[in-house]
Amino acid sequence: MIHCTSSNRVGALIALRAATLQGMSGDAAVELGKTWGLGSLEPAVRERLDR
Q1: Domain boundaries, the chain
Q2: How many CA atoms are closer than 13 Å to the CA of 23, on its beta-carbon side?
Q3: Cα–Cα distance measured from residue 14 to residue 21, given in angstroms and rounded to the nearest whole number
Q4: Could you count the other beta carbons within 10 Å of the beta carbon of residue 36?
Q5: How does pLDDT run across 2-50, given as a tens digit for each residue?
Q6: Is residue 51 classed as helix, strand or coil in its secondary structure?
């Protein structure tokens, strides 16, 4: 279980997992992360996915 008060970190982890382990495109993974609460960490997630 992953817990975060604002869900921002949870959304970031979900997005990174979707892209790296499930082969989802970066944009689709970020959109999925947003449904889980990704917010202010979006630029960091996008930067990581662009590597």
Answers
A1: 8-49
A2: 0
A3: 10
A4: 18
A5: 777 789 999 999 999 999 999 999 999 999 999 999 999 999 999 999 9
A6: coil
The b/e string for 4-32 (b: 16+ C-beta within 10 A; e otherwise) is eeebbbbbbbbbbebbeeeebeeeebbeb
Q: Which two tokens mark 39?
A: 């917010």
Backbone angles phi, psi at 8, to 5 degrees: -60, -45
CB atoms within 10 A of CB 2: 9
Q: What is the CA radius of gyration of the chain?
A: 10
Q: Give me the amino acid identity at 11.
A: G
- Cα-to-chain-centroid distance, residue 33: 4
Three-state secondary structure call for residue 40: coil
